[in-house]
Amino acid sequence: MSTEPRINERIRVPEVRLVGPNGEQVGIVTIGDALKLAQESDLDLVEVAATARPPVCKLMDYGKFKYESAMKAREARRNQAHTIIKEIKLRPKIDPHDYETKKGHVVRFLKAGDKVKVTIMFRGREQSRPELGFRLLQRLAEDVTELGFVESQPKQDGRNMIMVIGPHKKKAEAKAERAAARTRSDDSPEGAELEQELAGAEPQE
Question: pLDDT tier at 76 (50, 70, 90 boundaries)?
């Protein structure tokens, strides 16, 4: 069933409960009188409650209403911060340097307010040693415990083992901190260093 509002000549009822452009109650009038009032006011007659008896209609500038509604929705979407799931893949026998690099990525993602899906990939005989992957995931979770928490415990998924780490800070909070750091960096070297830290980068010498 369509929820699109009916306007002017598309309204097919003998009478309506009419609401004025400023929300004032006009009362129950015939559809002819309502259309006449709309024409005299250079406004649209819009049905706002089709299931009421009689239906409720309002006098309004429908084009302006649709434009303002679209702008509000656009602004809400712009202000809405979505949590993104990033993915990092590790091998059970990862070397220390590679582990530190991967951990650095996880730290950067969590600081940005994103979730991180950590995947341990087993190959060949490694599949018979799932405890290696489990211990590696536990180690990673402990290393980033100040920034995130284990949202989904390690679980086997075919040849892989998966764990999800969620950030302590919400996306909007992380975004606000980065914006504040950018503002401070315009005024001082310390601010620039803080911005780099929040972005997960190494401070420059």
Answer: confident
Q: Indicate whether 36 pLDDT > 90.
A: yes
Which residues have CB under 8 Å from 128's CB, separation 6+?
Answer: none
Q: Record the tokens describing residue 131, joined without a space.
A: 């405890």
Distance of CA 14 to the CA centre of its chain: 45
Strand 44-49 versus strand 56-60 pairing type: antiparallel
Residue for token digits 């590679």? 98
Rounded CA separation 85/113 (Å):
10
Distance CA 196, CA 174 (A): 13
CA 205 – CA 192 distance, rounded (Å) = 12
Residues ≥6 apart with Cβ < 8 Å to 166: 115, 148, 149, 150, 151
Distance from C-alpha of 43 to C-alpha of 21, rounded to nearest angstrom: 8
Contact 166, 148 (CB under 8 A): yes
Asked if 114 and 105 touch (Cβ cutoff 8 Å), the reply is no
What is the predicted pLDDT for the residue at 200?
53
Helix, strand, or coil (residue 49): strand
